[in-house]
Each structure stands twice: as structure tokens, then as C-alpha cells.
């Protein structure tokens, strides 16, 4: 691979109490590409994604060692400001969790807490709702509670909300698992457009989705990074026996 | 089994009925407005205006709420959002213990610590004389008694908020306090209201501790340093010896009925809110 | 990305400090209350307090002890707890075993138990007294037992309900599939499975009952002697404290502190035991 890495993981280990969730993971995530993390459920995919955002330290009895470098800065360095790190990364979770406020306020929330002035807010909200492909559907009811939207719309709203803090990386944790096929398709289409400007990391257990979207693939099994490489290589010519079996559906 | 079950549910109505029947003689003679809003309490002359007692109760409960709400709310937020899990688990028995201390003990403690504190330090600080037996003392003691009620329910409400909602806000780069302020408090507002209403109704009916420190003078309190005579204290002090004076019995049960109605009303409101929250979760 | 002291950081720090302060106030109050009771109580505590009835003058004498109140409290609250247990066990089993999960009846019963829980004990006292008059009973041990059992019924029922509703549905099904009837299931499987929980619910209710003064104020009366029959008035610890503190004699007031210490220790023992049993129960339950 020739693109420079945007996010580098070095010897990352995570354990909950005495159970190891991730074992000594090292990998480079390429810039402005879609990277898919695949593997059976419960193998540590989501843990890895959360480790990128330092959301893990908020759980209890979690011990983390190793480094995660974003633009060559270690996010686990205690001298670094956690809110600034998180601002660099948008998170899209399995189910949409709109904040308990209006559609407009959901998008405006991020810019507001980072002290963006109010006068250009209308424009900002419109801009990001448009990028998320939601503007046309909600422009007449911006001040309704976000929970009135359909679940697919909510997920796109969450995307717009995440984009509004101008992140460089989008972390998506099985973002379509709660959606109907039509909405999933819309989200996937969004991702293909967004990768021109953002580095996208998506956790998925749907192999076909990974095939459709990914440029780069990480295969994780029971907390270990078994294999990683360009999507074509992983799907067509996996080196590792386990990857092969997983791709063929023998293990799941 | 069904019978006993229904019977226990029926007990609320039975109590309401019993109190109504017993309070009926006074309700027949005087208008409800006169009983509730007249401040002339002269049982020997047949005047039963309960305003001084109602005002006493409102003062005491109001002070308790003003003190208890911010302190319990911030404590609940700290324990559920900031404190390490071990500390959170560790603190629960102590909050339960605070709830389990008998009100007489609160009363004893109030007399030993709070009454002198008000008399010797707080009142002189404001340049006022107070015997210490005042609505302020009663309010302070009561506020401590309702800490556990508010803390417990608020923590449960916070617990019911999905972790992902916090993460959604944190992932946008919000600080913890911003997340609490903009997301959690907004989301849990109905539950917090319910918690405080329950705390209020607990304070409203609390008897012994208040009886011991409020001073019990039949007069509408004009400042926090005045003595007050809350409704429960009125019942507790006089109910044994009311038989000799006509209507006294009915008047006291009338005040019990007032307590009952107010407390049930607040309970209905808060349980309704909490019930709605539970429905939303499941 | 380095840390900067921005406005929101300052706000965070200020509120965090405030919250810690508030938590400290809450726990400080607990320590202060128990500390005060212990320090004041120990000074006037002696063996006579728990082995003798009041002596040296009519009503709350300056000598002797409060054995009358200790025995009265125990007899009264134990009987009330037993009655409340007999009344609430069927209720809780009914809403958990017979009624469908989250049925309207179960919700209604839980709701009215919550309301009953919220009613001030003084109202129970007044209500109990009118009931007693209706049946021609004067202030006595019996009157106190009836009132306190009504007062702690909702507390016990809700505490038990919380434990029993934790029993996984599979356990019911396992029992039914072995051919057990609902009644057998309720009595043998569920009650046995949740025994520590039920005992701890009873202890919680006992703790509330033994500490409450307002409900027994008119219904149980007060006496310097240990009650020998159900129809005699009986002293209770909270009332002993209240009356002793209300006398104009400093010697008697001192004795109130000792009585308060006895009551506090009793409550501490009860709540620690209840908590221990709950913890044990949680460990054994199938999650």
C-alpha cells in the first residue's frame, strides 16, 4: 500500500478484568479509504473501534496498553486533551441514538460545544444535513424532536451530527445492523462519497457489505488480528487459513 | 390469594374512606375554605382554621426541598457519572443506611446539633434572635432525611439511560459535564422531577423529627428563624387527648386527611412519570 | 491537541468539585449523625439500661433502664412483621406467579403498594386508632401490632416483589414441565429460591417498623412495665426516646441518648444483616 497511514495502532492490548479482549494489535489504517474490520461477533471488533476514540477508559476495570497514533500523536498520552481527540473522530453506533433535542439542535450540538458562533449555524446545519442526504426530507421540520424520524433517517442524522464537528475519521460500528435494506443502501452510498474527504473505519459482520465498501480489511478472531491487507487480497487470496475459512463461511 | 391481593390494593381506598368518615362532622359544619385558609385555631371556641399548620408544613418542606434538591442531584450525578464503579457500589449501602435511620434519631440529632447551630451561629450571623427550634432547623433535618430518596431514584433514572447516548455526546468532543448538562439532564428531566416530588411528599408527612425541632407554636412563621407547627406535629401532639372537646377529633382527622390527599396526589404524579419512563425502556 | 484551560474545562472542574463537595456533605451527615448518637449515648450507657425497667419515680424514672421499651419494641415489631409477612407473601406470589407478567392487575397492585409506602406513618397511626375505636380496642400492644403491620406491609411486599421478579422465567417453566402446579411452584420452588431475599425484605420491614414512632404514638400507648397481654399498653424504643427527651429533667434526657444508641445499634445490625443476605441471594441467583 502506498497511501500514508492516518491512524497507527502499535501493540495495543485491552483486557476487561482478567479477560483479554484484544491481544497485541499493530496495524496501520490508510488515509481516506474505507477500512472494514471483520470477524465473528464478540471477537473484539467493537472494542478495537472504541479504543480508537478512547471511549474504553470510561468503562470500568479496563486496562489498556500500547499506542494509538493519529497523525503521529499518541491519543493515550495523558497530556493530550481527550475532547480534542474525540472531536477528530465521528462515531456512528449500531443503533442511532439521537440526542434528546430537535433535529436542528442535534446537528448544532457539536459545533456549539466547541464554541462555534450562532450566526452561521443555520448554514452549518443545512450543510451537514445535505452531506448526510437528509436535508430534503427534514427541511420543513427542523425543530421537531429527532426521535420522530424513522430509524434510517435517525442514523443519517447521527452521521450529520458527527460530521458537523469536522472530524477527519469516521468510526462506524455496524452502522446498518438496525436498518432496513433501503436505509442501509443509503448509508453505504454516503460512505462511498465521504471517503473522498474522510478516513472511514467500519466494523461489520456482514461480509457482503465489507466486499461492497472496503478498500482495506482487518480480520480479527478472538481478540487477535489474524490478517490485514487490501480488500482485494483478503477476499480473493487470503494468506491465513482462518481468514480463508471465515471468508468461505466455514467458521463464523 | 386473589382476595388478599385485592385487599392490599384496596387498603388505600379503605384509609381514604375511614379518614373521610371521621372528618365528616367538621366538613358538615364548616366550609373547606374556612378550614384550610382561616388562621384562627381555637379548639375550645370551636375555631379550627388550619392555615398556621399548613403554612408551617409548607415552610418546613420548602426549606428542606431547597437544601436537598441541589445537594442530592449533584451527589447522584457524581455517583452515577463520575465515581469509579467500586465507589458507586460502595456508597449504596450507606445511602440505604441514611434512609433507614429512624426519624426519632434524626430528631435527637437535630436537637443536639442543628438547633444549637441555628441558635448560636446561623441566627446571630443574620443578627436575629432564635431559640433554634425553628422551621429552618426542621427544614435542615428534613432535607437530610430526603437525601436518600432523591439520590436513589435519580441514580436509577440515570442508570436507565443507554450508554450509547453518553458516548454519542462524548464522541463529539463534549466534556463529561457538557454531556450531563445538555444530554443526560434533559433526557432524565421527568425522572428527576418525579424523584424530587417523591422527596417532597416524604418530607410533607414526616412527623417525629419535625415535631422535635420545629418549635410547635401556633402561628404562621414569618421568617426561617420562627418556630412553626407543621400538620403532622399537630396530629401527633394532640390526637391522644382530643376526646373531651367536640369536633377536635374530626379536625385532627381532617388534617390527617389533608396529609393523605396531598401525599397521594404527589405520589400519583411521580409514579405516573416513573411508570412512563419504565415503559419507554422496556 | 495539548490540554488548554478553556472555559468548558473550568466549568467541568468547578462542577466536579461541587459534586464531590455535595457527596461529601451527604456522607458527612451520615457519619455526623451516627457519631453524635454514639458519643452522646456512650456517656449515659450502662448495663442497667438494657436489663431493668424504669425505676425511681413514676413514668420514665431517673434510674433503671428501658427494658420495657426494648421488649415492647421487639414483641410488637416481630409480631407485626410476622403478620405483614403472612399478608404480603400471598400478594407477591400472586402478582408474580398467577398474574401474567406486567398484567394490568399486577401493575395496579404494585402501584397501590407504592402509594401505601408513601403514606406518612402518622396517618397510619391516626387511621389505626380510628379502626381500634371502631372495634373497641384501647391503646395496647394489639393496636400497635395491627397498625405497624399495615404500615410495613407495603415496604415488605415491594422489597419481596423486587427479589421474586428477578427469578428467571425458565425456572417457572422448568417447574411446570415437571408437572408441578402453580401453587406448588410458588410455594416450593420460588419461595425456596428466594428465601434469603424474603428474609432480607422482612428485616428491612422490621427495621422500618422498629424505628417508627408516629404509628405507635396513639395505638400502642406507653407503659413502664413489660406488657403481659395483648391488651395492655406497651412501650417502644422510639417513643421512650421521644418522651425521655421531652421531660424537663437533664438526668432523664441523658437516658434518651442511651436509648437512641440502643435503637441505632439495633437498626445497624438489622440493615447490615439484610444487606448481607441480599448479597448472598444475588450470588446464588441464575443471571
Question: How would you characterize this protein structure?
Answer:
The complex is a heterotrimer of chains A (252), B (282) and C (287). By secondary structure, chain A is an alpha/beta fold. Chain A has two domains: 1-88 and 168-252, P-loop containing nucleotide triphosphate hydrolases (Rossmann fold), CATH 3.40.50.300; 98-166, no CATH class. Chain A has helices at 45-52, 82-87, 103-113, 121-131, 135-138, 151-163, 181-194, 207-213, 231-236, 241-248; strands at residues 5-16, 19-30, 34-38, 62-70, 73-74, 89-92, 169-173, 199-203, 216-221, 224-230. In chain A, strand 1 and strand 2 form a beta hairpin. In chain A, helix 3 runs parallel beside helix 6 and helix 4 crosses helix 6. Chain A starts with a strand and ends with a helix. The mean pLDDT of chain A is 88. Chain B is mainly α. Chain B has a single domain (48-281), classed as MetI-like (MetI-like fold), CATH 1.10.3720.10. Chain B has helices at residues 2-29, 32-37, 51-82, 85-100, 103-125, 135-159, 163-171, 176-205, 208-213, 231-238, 248-281, and strands at 41-42, 47-48. In chain B, a hairpin with a 4-residue loop joins strand 1 and strand 2. In chain B, helix 8 (176-205) packs antiparallel against helix 11. The longest helix of chain B has 34 residues, at 248-281. The two termini of chain B are 28 Å apart. The mean pLDDT of chain B is 90. Chain C is mostly helical and 287 residues long. In chain C, 48% of the residues are buried. A two-stranded antiparallel ribbon of chain C has the order 1-2. Chain C has a domain at 73-221 and 261-284: MetI-like fold (Orthogonal Bundle), CATH 1.10.3720.10. In chain C, helix 7 crosses helix 8. Chain C is 74% helix and 1% strand.
Descriptive keywords:
heterotrimer, A: 252 residues, alpha/beta, Rossmann fold, six-stranded mixed sheet, four-stranded antiparallel sheet, 35% helix, B: 282 residues, mainly alpha, MetI-like fold, two-stranded antiparallel sheet, 11 helices, 2 strands
Q: What's the number of helices of chain B? A: 11
Low-confidence stretches of chain C: none
* Low-pLDDT windows of residues of chain B: none
* CATH-assigned homologous superfamily of chain B: MetI-like
Order of helices and strands of chain B: HHEEHHHHHHHHH
Q: Which CATH class of chain B applies here?
A: Mainly Alpha
Number of strands of chain C: 2
Average pLDDT level of chain C: 86
Biggest interface goes to:
B-C, 75 and 81 residues
Q: Major β-sheet of chain C, in short? A: 2 strands, antiparallel
**Computed Rg of chain B:** 22 Å
Structural class of chain B: mainly alpha
The chain-level structural class of chain C is mainly alpha
Beta-strand portion of chain C reads under 5%
User: What name does CATH use for the topology of chain B?
Assistant: MetI-like fold
Cα Rg of chain C: 23 Å
Number of strands of chain B: 2
What general form of chain B does the structure show?
globular
Amino acid at each position: 500500500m502506498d497511501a500514508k497511514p492516518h491512524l497507527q495502532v502499535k501493540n495495543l492490548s485491552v483486557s476487561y478484568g482478567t479477560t483479554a479482549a484484544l491481544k497485541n494489535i499493530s496495524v496501520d489504517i490508510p488515509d481516506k479509504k474505507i477500512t472494514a474490520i471483520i470477524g465473528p461477533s464478540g471477537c473484539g471488533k467493537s472494542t478495537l473501534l472504541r479504543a480508537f476514540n478512547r471511549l474504553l477508559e470510561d468503562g470500568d476495570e479496563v486496562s489498556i496498553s500500547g499506542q494509538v497514533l493519529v497523525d503521529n500523536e499518541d491519543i493515550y498520552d495523558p497530556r493530550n486533551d481527550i475532547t480534542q481527540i474525540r472531536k477528530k473522530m465521528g462515531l456512528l453506533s449500531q443503533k442511532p441514538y439521537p440526542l434528546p433535542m430537535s433535529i436542528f439542535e442535534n446537528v448544532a450540538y457539536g459545533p456549539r460545544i466547541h464554541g462555534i458562533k450562532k450566526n452561521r449555524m443555520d448554514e452549518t446545519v443545512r450543510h451537514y444535513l445535505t452531506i448526510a442526504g437528509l436535508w430534503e426530507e427534514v427541511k420543513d421540520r427542523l425543530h421537531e424532536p429527532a426521535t420522530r424520524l424513522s430509524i434510517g433517517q435517525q442514523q443519517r442524522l447521527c452521521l450529520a451530527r458527527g460530521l458537523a464537528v469536522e472530524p477527519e475519521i469516521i468510526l462506524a460500528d455496524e452502522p446498518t445492523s438496525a436498518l432496513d435494506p433501503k436505509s442501509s443502501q443509503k448509508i453505504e452510498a454516503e460512505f462511498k462519497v465521504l471517503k473522498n474527504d474522510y478516513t472511514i473505519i467500519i466494523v461489520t459482520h456482514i461480509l457482503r457489505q465489507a466486499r461492497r465498501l472496503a478498500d482495506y480489511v482487518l480480520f480479527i478472531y478472538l481478540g487477535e488480528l489474524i490478517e490485514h491487507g487490501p480488500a482485494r487480497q483478503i477476499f480473493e487470496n487470503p494468506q491465513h487459513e482462518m481468514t480463508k475459512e471465515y471468508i468461505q463461511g466455514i467458521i463464523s | 390469594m386473589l382476595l388478599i391481593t385485592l385487599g392490599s390494593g384496596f387498603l388505600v381506598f379503605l384509609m381514604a374512606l375511614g379518614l373521610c368518615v371521621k372528618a365528616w362532622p367538621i366538613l358538615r359544619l364548616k366550609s373547606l375554605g374556612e378550614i384550610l385558609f382561616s388562621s384562627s385555631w381555637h379548639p375550645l371556641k370551636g375555631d379550627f382554621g388550619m392555615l398556621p399548620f399548613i403554612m408551617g408544613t409548607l415552610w418546613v418542606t420548602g426549606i428542606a426541598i431547597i437544601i436537598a434538591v441541589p445537594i442530592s442531584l449533584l451527589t447522584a450525578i457524581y455517583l452515577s457519572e463520575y465515581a469509579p464503579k467500586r465507589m458507586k457500589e460502595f456508597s449504596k449501602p450507606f445511602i440505604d443506611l441514611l434512609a433507614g435511620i429512624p426519624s426519632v434519631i434524626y430528631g435527637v440529632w437535630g436537637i443536639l446539633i442543628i438547633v444549637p447551630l441555628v441558635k448560636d451561629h446561623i441566627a446571630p450571623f443574620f443578627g436575629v434572635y432564635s431559640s433554634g427550634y425553628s422551621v429552618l432547623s426542621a427544614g435542615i433535618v428534613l432535607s437530610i432525611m430526603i437525601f436518600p430518596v432523591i439520590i436513589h431514584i435519580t441514580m436509577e433514572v440515570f442508570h436507565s439511560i443507554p450508554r450509547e447516548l453518553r458516548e454519542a455526546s462524548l464522541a463529539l468532543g463534549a466534556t463529561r459535564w457538557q454531556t450531563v448538562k445538555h444530554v443526560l439532564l434533559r433526557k432524565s428531566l421527568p425522572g428527576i422531577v418525579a424523584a424530587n416530588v417523591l422527596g417532597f411528599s416524604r418530607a410533607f408527612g414526616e412527623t417525629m423529627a419535625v415535631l422535635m425541632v420545629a418549635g410547635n407554636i401556633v402561628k404562621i412563621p414569618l421568617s426561617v428563624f420562627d418556630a412553626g407547627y407543621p400538620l403532622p406535629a399537630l396530629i401527633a401532639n394532640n390526637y391522644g387527648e382530643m376526646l373531651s372537646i367536640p369536633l377536635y377529633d374530626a379536625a385532627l382527622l381532617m388534617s390527617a386527611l389533608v396529609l393523605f390527599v396531598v401525599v397521594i396526589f404527589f405520589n400519583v404524579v411521580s409514579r405516573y412519570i416513573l411508570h412512563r419512563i419504565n415503559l419507554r425502556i422496556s | 491537541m495539548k490540554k488548554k484551560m478553556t472555559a468548558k474545562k473550568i466549568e467541568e472542574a468547578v462542577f466536579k468539585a461541587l459534586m464531590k463537595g455535595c457527596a461529601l456533605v451527604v456522607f458527612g451527615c451520615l457519619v455526623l449523625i451516627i457519631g453524635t448518637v454514639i458519643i452522646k449515648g456512650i456517656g449515659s450507657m450502662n448495663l442497667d439500661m438494657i436489663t431493668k425497667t424504669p425505676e425511681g419515680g413514676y413514668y420514665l424514672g431517673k434510674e433503671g433502664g428501658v427494658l420495657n421499651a426494648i421488649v415492647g419494641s421487639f414483641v410488637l415489631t416481630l409480631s407485626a412483621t410476622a403478620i405483614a409477612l403472612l399478608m404480603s407473601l400471598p400478594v407477591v406470589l400472586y402478582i408474580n406467579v398467577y398474574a401474567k407478567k406486567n398484567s394490568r392487575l399486577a401493575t395496579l397492585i404494585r402501584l397501590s403498594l407504592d402509594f401505601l409506602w408513601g403514606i406518612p406513618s402518622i396517618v397510619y397511626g391516626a387511621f389505626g386508632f380510628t379502626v381500634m375505636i371502631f372495634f373497641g380496642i384501647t391503646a395496647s400492644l394489639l393496636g400497635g401490632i395491627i397498625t405497624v403491620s399495615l404500615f410495613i406491609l407495603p415496604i415488605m411486599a415491594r422489597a419481596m416483589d423486587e427479589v421474586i421478579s428477578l427469578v428467571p422465567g425458565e425456572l417457572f417453566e422448568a417447574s411446570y414441565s415437571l408437572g408441578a402446579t402453580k401453587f406448588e411452584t410458588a410455594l416450593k420452588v420460588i419461595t425456596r429460591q428466594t428465601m434469603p431475599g424474603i428474609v432480607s425484605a422482612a428485616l428491612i420491614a422490621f427495621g422500618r417498623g422498629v424505628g417508627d414512632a408516629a404509628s405507635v404514638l396513639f395505638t400502642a400507648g406507653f407503659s413502664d412495665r413489660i406488657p403481659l397481654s395483648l391488651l395492655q399498653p406497651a412501650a417502644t424504643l422510639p417513643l421512650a426516646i421521644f418522651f425521655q427527651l421531652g421531660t424537663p429533667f437533664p438526668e432523664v434526657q441523658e437516658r434518651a441518648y442511651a436509648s437512641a444508641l440502643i435503637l441505632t445499634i439495633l437498626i445497624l445490625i438489622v440493615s447490615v444483616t439484610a444487606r448481607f443476605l441480599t448479597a448472598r441471594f444475588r450470588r446464588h441467583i441464575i443471571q
